[in-house]
């Protein structure tokens, strides 16, 4: 469920400005197309239905009617965002039931998660005897390439974006280790935006929702808190882009940034392999951070080399789809398959008659 929610949320990045009031509806397909996790899911797919579903195409339909937005997911579930009522309505047609989560409840839930994270960090610092206070600072880059392309019979322009969540620490020694590793979590997007009449209503809706939630990234539904932060920064900047995203290639992952050239790559590879093979026990938090990052990067690089070969084969059959981003944990392709600005039945944005309200699902699944 988290993966599906993530795909849907990433796909609803708004664009064009406008003030007209009109209904709008569009359908899009999202699919995991590459990254290190693809190899894992291929292996697990033999044993797990959920793993197979992760890489299967996910269809969703989004409708906007005034201050309500309805999203129909590929598994049949429905989510309605009610701005006036400041709530999310989650509907399950299979069980003919629904549950409600208010904006305030979501904020409280995320605040509890942040407090829990702070407590865990404090415990870790006390255990290792140093106040490392590692935080993540976003670095955002956006570029209009000037490239054009026809998508859905619409002229589009390319916009590339990237956000890096950089590690920083108040402890000088820990900060020095972090700067040496140049480690970061990141998210990148290669999107094609086009002018579509009626889509401005979607953008206005998400601007209002973002204001209500204070840019809270809780709806992203990602298990990794660092990538949730990256997605929030990505979404905030994407709201300023002019047009509807008709085709998007999104990647996210973890990498040692600032490296270029074969010599640096070979040096980093040797360091990664050494770190991944080191069985010694860290004596403090700085060593623990360096060891864990080195081991993870070593595994990612080996997976990246394997994925690179697969990407080359894929590019031969689909020249329009870019290869997997180096160091990516997951690549996602999202494309709009239809859109219309016809009037919508207002009852679509209410709980169906005869449905039973159940206790709110706060499991995050």
Strand order of the largest sheet: 7-8-9-10-11-1-2-3-4-5-6-12
Structural class: alpha+beta
What value does the Rg take, in angstroms? Answer: 22 Å
Q: Which percent bin holds the helix content?
A: 25-40%
**Low-confidence region ranges:** 6-20, 217-224, 257-269, 306-319
Biggest β-sheet description: 12 strands, mixed
Helix tally equals 9
Strand content: 25-35%
Write down how many β-strands occur, each being a DSSP E stretch of 2 or more residues: 12
> What is the averaged pLDDT score?
73
- What separation lies between the terminal Cα atoms? 5 Å
Write the element-wise H/E pattern from the N-terminal end onward. Answer: HEHHEEEEEHEEHEHHEHHEE
- Overall, the morphology is globular
Describe the fold and architecture.
By secondary structure, the chain is of the alpha+beta class. The chain is 38% helix and 31% strand. The protein is built from 9 helices and 12 strands. It has helices at 2-11, 36-44, 49-54, 103-128, 172-181, 200-212, 225-238, 262-277, 285-317, and strands spanning 24-34, 58-65, 68-72, 78-82, 87-92, 97-102, 135-151, 154-168, 183-194, 244-256, 328-340, 356-357. The chain has a 12-stranded mixed β-sheet with strand order 7-8-9-10-11-1-2-3-4-5-6-12. Helix 5 runs parallel beside helix 9 and helix 8 (262-277) packs across helix 9 (285-317). The termini are close together.
Brief overview, please?
This protein has 365 residues and is of the alpha+beta class. It has 9 helices and 12 strands.
């Amino acid at each position: 469920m988290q993966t599906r929610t993530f795909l849907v949320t990433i796909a609803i990045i708004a664009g064009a400005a406008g003030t007209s009031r009109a209904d709008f509806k569009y359908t899009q397909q999202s699919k995991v197309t590459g990254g290190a996790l693809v190899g894992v899911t291929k292996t697990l797919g033999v044993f797990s239905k959920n793993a197979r579903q992760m890489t299967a195409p996910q269809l969703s339909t989004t409708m906007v009617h005034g201050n309500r937005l309805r999203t129909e997911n590929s598994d049949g579930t429905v989510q309605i965002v009610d701005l006036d009522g400041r709530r999310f309505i989650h509907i399950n047609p299979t069980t003919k039931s629904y549950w409600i989560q208010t904006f305030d409840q979501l904020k409280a839930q995320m605040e509890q998660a942040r407090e829990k994270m702070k407590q865990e960090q404090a415990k870790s610092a006390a255990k290792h005897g140093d106040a490392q206070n590692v935080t993540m600072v976003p670095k955002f880059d956006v570029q209009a390439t000037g490239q054009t392309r026809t998508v859905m019979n619409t002229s589009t322009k390319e916009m590339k974006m990237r956000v890096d969540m950089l590690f920083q620490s108040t402890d000088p020694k820990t900060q020095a280790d972090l700067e040496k590793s140049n480690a970061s979590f990141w998210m990148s997007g290669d999107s094609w935006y086009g002018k579509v009449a009626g889509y401005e209503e979607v953008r206005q809706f998400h601007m209002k929702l973002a204001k209500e939630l204070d840019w809270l990234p809780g709806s992203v539904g990602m298990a990794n808190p660092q990538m949730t932060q990256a997605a929030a920064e990505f979404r905030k900047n994407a709201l300023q882009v002019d047009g509807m995203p008709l085709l998007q290639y999104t990647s996210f992952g973890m990498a040692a940034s600032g490296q270029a050239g074969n010599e640096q790559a070979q040096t980093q590879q040797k360091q990664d392999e050494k770190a991944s093979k080191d069985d010694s026990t860290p004596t403090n938090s700085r060593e623990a951070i360096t060891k864990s990052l080195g081991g993870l990067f070593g595994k990612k690089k080996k997976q990246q080399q394997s994925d690179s070969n697969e990407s080359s084969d894929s590019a031969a059959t689909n020249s329009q789809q870019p290869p997997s981003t180096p160091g990516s944990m997951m690549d996602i392709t999202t494309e709009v398959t239809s859109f219309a600005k016809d009037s919508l039945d207002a009852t679509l944005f209410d709980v169906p008659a005869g449905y039973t309200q159940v206790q709110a699902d706060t499991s995050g699944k």
